[in-house]
Structures are given as C-alpha cells and as structure tokens.
Amino acid sequence: MLLEVRDIHVHYGKIAALKGVTLEVEEGEIVTLIGANGAGKTTTLKSISGLRPLTSGRIVFDGTDISKLQGHKRVLAGIGQAPEGRGIFPGMTVQENLLMGAYARKGTFREELDEVYELFPRLSERRTQFGGTMSGGEQQMLAIGRALMTNPKVLLLDEPSMGLAPMLVAQIFEIVREINQRGTTVLLVEQNAMQALQLAHRAYVLESGRVVKAADASGLLDDPEVRAAYLGGDLGVD
Amino acid sequence: MDNFLGQFGPATVGGLAIGSIYALVALGYTMVYGVLRLINFAHSEVFTIGGFAAVGVFLMVGVSAPVGGFALIGLLLLTVLVAMAASGGTALLLEQVAYRPLRKHGSSRLAALISAIGASLFLQELIKLVIIPHVFGQSNGAIQLQNMPRVIDKTPLFSIGNAPIRLDHVIIVVAAVIMMVLLDRLVNGTRVGRGIRATAQDPEAAVLMGVNIDKVVRTTFLLGGAMAGVAGVLYLLYFENLDYRVGFVVGIKAFTAAVLGGIGNLRGALLGGFVLGLVESWSSIFLGAEWSEVTAFVVLVLVLMFRPTGILGESLQRARA
Ligand SMILES: Nc1ncnc2c1ncn2[C@@H]1O[C@H](COP(=O)(O)OP(=O)(O)OP(=O)(O)O)[C@@H](O)[C@H]1O
Ligand SMILES: [Mg+2]
Asked: I need a labelling partner for A23 at 20 to 30 A (CA). Which of A50, A222, B13, B44 fits?
C-alpha cells in the first residue's frame, strides 16, 4: 500500500472537519474522492500533505508513519499536490513556478522540465509569462506541472476541473490519465463526479467529514444513491 | 524663495543621506510584512541595537581621532559586521520569543501586533536600564559621542553646485546602495530568495514545494535585522549621538517609507525611503528642522488616505522583487 489514511480526525479550532476518515491508495491507481461542498475533501488532502495537523489517527506513506512529519519534508518523501485554487505564485514566471517544484531536490531536473513541457505544450509557449496573468485553465496546467516537478510518487489533485470549460476539463482529465499511465499514482478530489468516476479505478464518497462509501469507481457509477446525490439523477452514462 | 534656492542643494544631500537610512530600515519592515503579514513593531529597536553595537566597537578599538584611508575602511567594515550580527541576532531572538509561539498557536494578527509592541517597549527599557548603564557605564539615558573623538572627518570634500559633500554623506549613500544591491541579488537570484518570494506569494503552496517556512521566516528576520544594523551604524556616523529612543522615530519614518512605497515591496521600500528623506529635508527649509517629524506623519496619513497601496502599488506578493 503506497498511502494509508487511518481514521484521521482534523479540526479547525473547535470545529471538526474530519471525523474519522480512512482511505487507501495502492501504487499505480487513480483513486477519486468525491463529496459535496464542505464534506472535507480539501482538508483530507491538506492533512496528507501536512498542511493541517491531525487531532488523531495516522497517515502511513510508503511504509513509514508520516503523521508527525513536517509538510515540507513530505514533498521529498514523494507527496506532490496541485492544491485547490491552484496556488500559483503570481509574481513568478511559468518557468520559475515550475522550478519551484524542484526546490527541495538536489541535482538535475532538466528531464522533468522537458517532460512537463511536452505534456503541456501551452506552458512551453508561455515560459516567461507571469503566473498571475495566466488564464484559469493555464494556471491549472501550471499547478499540475509544478506538482509533477516535485517528482511525486503520489500526485494529489484538488478539483483540477474547477471553473474550466467542458472541453478543457476533458483535456485535463486526459492528461491525468496520461500521467497515471506514465507511472504516477493519483489521488483525485472532484466535484465533477461523473468524469472522475469514469477515470478512476476506485472511489471514496465523503460526507460531513466521514467516508460513507468505498467502492470500485464503475460500481459507484451505477449506485442509485450516488447517482442521485452526485451525478444529477439519471444523466446518461456510457 | 532665495532662501529656498540657497538651501535646496544642501537639503537634497542631507535628504539622500537620511533617506538611505530610512530605506535600509524600511526593508526590514517590508520583508517581514511580505512573509508574515506582520508589522514587526520592535524592528525600531533592532535598529537601535545596531547603533549601540557600533559605539561599542568604536570604544573597544579606541578611536581617538578621525581616521582615514585603509584604517577607516577597515574600521567601518568591522563595525558594520558587528552591528549586523548584533541586530540580526536580536531580530532572530525576537522572532523566536515574541512571534513564533503565537504563530504556532495560530493566534490572531492583532495578538502578534500587541506582542510586537510589547517587545519594542521591553527592548527600549533593556537598552535604557541595562545596556547604557552597565555596558557603557553611563546612566543619563543617552550616549553622546561629543566626548568621544569623531570617527570621520566632517569637513566638505567637494561641492556639487552650492551643496558641500562630506565623506559621511558619501559613505552613507554608498554603503546603503551596496546593501540594497546585495539584498536584491539575494532575493531575486538565489535559492534562499526563491523560498522567501514563494512564501510571500503563497505560503501554503510554498510548503507544497518543500519550502521550510520556519527557515524562511528566520532568514527574513535575520536579513531585515542585518539591514537595520547597517542603518544603525550609518545613523551614528551622521548624527553622532544615540539614545535609547532613537529607534522609535526612525522606525516610524522607515515604516512610513515602507507604506509609501507599497508595503511588502522591496523596491518600493527603497523608493519610499529616499522620497521621505527628501520631502522631509526640503520641507524643513520652510518649516524648520523641528517640523520634520510632522512632515513624516502627514505623508503617512496622506498615503493611507489617498493611495493605501503605496507608490509602486503592488506588494511582494505580486511584484517580482
Ligand atoms: N480555514 C478554515 N477554518 C475553519 N473551517 C474551515 C476551514 N477550512 C475548511 N473549514 C471547514 O471544514 C469543512 C471541510 O472543508 P473542506 O474545504 O475540506 O471541504 P471540501 O470538501 O473541500 O469542500 P469544497 O468542495 O467546497 O472544496 C467545512 O465545513 C469548512 O467550512
Ligand atoms: Mg475543497
């Protein structure tokens, strides 16, 4: 098991955002985490990246307990994230943003940079443009590319489709598939449940800080409750 | 008007000198603000400590007359290094004791500001009650360098128009510009600087890149403190006196300079420092030097009223700097 989240509880002040979340990600998988607004998806990813401390529970990554490991050290351990809202450094150029992904690493990163530019030709055309002046879709590509530059074993993606036109969403999802096929494990948080379930191998449904369903993604696509709650009733599924 | 024209040149030279000092101190306010969104109120005392460290060096070396040539260069280098260490060390300690515990606790920014004011008062009293009487053996709350020989000869070297230029003017402006260039290089051209800029622009994203925020914060305090230490030395060379409160007035003016340039923006702080120094100096031709404090506050209030984002407008967040 590459990533194991064991019964974690996380609080903002006195408010409990996660009330016992357990999930697992196997090497090579795409796992998706779906749920309504405020369910705790972002908090789960932040906890895995060490941005929020755990009140209780454990996170085990690649065989080691990282529950107490500082956030910046988890990057070197192999956890990369493209956060909600993208978190682009607005005053840095595209290339500087990408190189920030290699900040913690010593040695060469030429290869990774070339690979990111190959994956996102749009970024390559705009190397010297400031991050803050990029369009939403471009920023999302930059956020994913930057996370890839950390050379992650698992890539955490927090709503990469947010605010994007349908065509662009399809394109981003296609790239996520490509990244996975090249060998990176993916944990994908999505509102866009339909497309996420079509892409992922397995899925978890989060509700008010708890996992209420865990199943194969294809199974959840046919689950009447999930269809009613997250897939807009009986929208056609192919 | 004749009066004004006659004094314009000298006032400009003086304004540039004092503006250099404001600019160096302003860098510390603006860097810490950029990274932590905190106004480090005690930065003024970090500056004061630099001045006192310089006095310590002069006394220790036993300067008995103005020095020149290589001796002066050596003395100034030594003094600047000691002052940078003293001020930088104080700033680090301040961060450790007064700010970090609150930050780790997730306290509000108001709590941090109050802690900053407390730390500022504490350091003032420490200088007044411990450092001045026990380290320097004086109990009058002031160290007047009048009873010490001058370190730098203050006769004019040459004139530009009707403005006589002295060696201390040259040293102050040159030293300040060197420090600013070094800092700019560091922030925009090194890995450490990339960490600082990333943290200022988006702290959470910076952590996701593997940036150690605690280390960035420490570095920021250290750098800002070191700049203030240099400013303390330059202040001493220029005014030749110090008391435990000098930091207060210089600090407020440097803070004004930082706001004037756009707080969080390094180049803005430099610009703000020079603009404030010049405005203050020119206005004192009409109003008299005793009104210069008023000028600074009027500028601060006007900026806050009409252009709260400062001249350069953008913060460290957005700016390349
Ligand atoms: N900084 C914060 N301070 C206080 N409460 C917070 C904070 N961030 C999140 N919360 C609360 O924690 C709960 C979970 O939030 P979270 O952002 O993880 O939800 P989410 O599933 O990502 O939602 P969305 O789909 O809208 O992004 C919510 O009730 C939210 O109000
Ligand atoms: Mg979210």
From this structure: A222
- The answer to whether residue B83 sits within a structural domain is yes
Most B-contacting residue of A72, A94, A155 (CB-CB within 10 A), to test interface:
A72
Which residues of B are less than 8 Å from A81 in CB distance? 208
Four-residue CA torsion sign, B233, B235, B241, B246: negative
ipTM here = 0.94
Given CB atoms, is A132 within the 8 Å cutoff of chain B?
yes
pLDDT tens per residue, range A103-146: 998 878 899 999 999 999 999 999 999 999 999 999 999 999 99
**What sign has the CA pseudo-torsion B158, B162, B166, B170?**
negative
Which range marks the domain in which residue B20 is found?
Answer: 11-138+164-306
Joined tokens for residue B190: 């090194």
Provide the CATH number for the domain around residue B107. 1.10.3470
For A49, the domain range is 3-235
How many Cβ atoms from other residues are within 10 Å of residue B3's Cβ? 9
| Contact assessment for residue A49 and residue A33, using Cβ atoms and an 8 Å cutoff | no
- Going by C-alpha positions, the residue among A116, A25, A120 that lies closest to residue A79 is A25
Q: What is the dihedral of CA B306, B309, B311, B316, to 10 degrees?
A: 170
Structure tokens at B146: 């009048």
Angle subtended by helix axes B43-61 and B69-94, to nearest 10: 140
Q: Are strands A3-12 and A15-25 parallel, antiparallel or unpaired?
A: antiparallel
- Asked, for residue B229, whether it belongs to a domain, the answer is yes
Do A92 and A85 contact (CB within 8 A), yes or no? no
Look at chain B and report how many structural domains it folds into: 1
Mean pLDDT, contiguous 10-residue spans, chain A (238 residues): 97 95 97 94 98 97 97 97 97 96 88 94 96 94 97 97 92 96 97 92 96 92 83 52
Distances, alpha carbon A99 to alpha carbons A112, A133, B250, in Å: 10, 18, 39
CATH of the domain at A65: 3.40.50.300
Q: Which of A37, A42, A45, A187 to probe ligand 1 with, by most ligand atoms within 8 A of CB?
A: A42
Q: How far apart, in whole angstroms, are the C-alpha atoms of residue A32 and residue B278?
A: 60
Q: What is the mean pLDDT of chain A?
A: 93
- Answer whether B209 sits within 8 Å of A150, measured CB to CB: yes
User: What is the number of domains present in chain A?
Assistant: 1
CB count in 10 Å sphere of residue B23: 29
Q: Is residue B316 part of a domain?
A: no
> Rounded to whole angstroms, how far apart are CA atoms A154 and A185?
5
Of A55, A59, A56, the residue nearest A45 (C-alpha): A59
Per the domain annotation, does B43 fall within a domain? yes
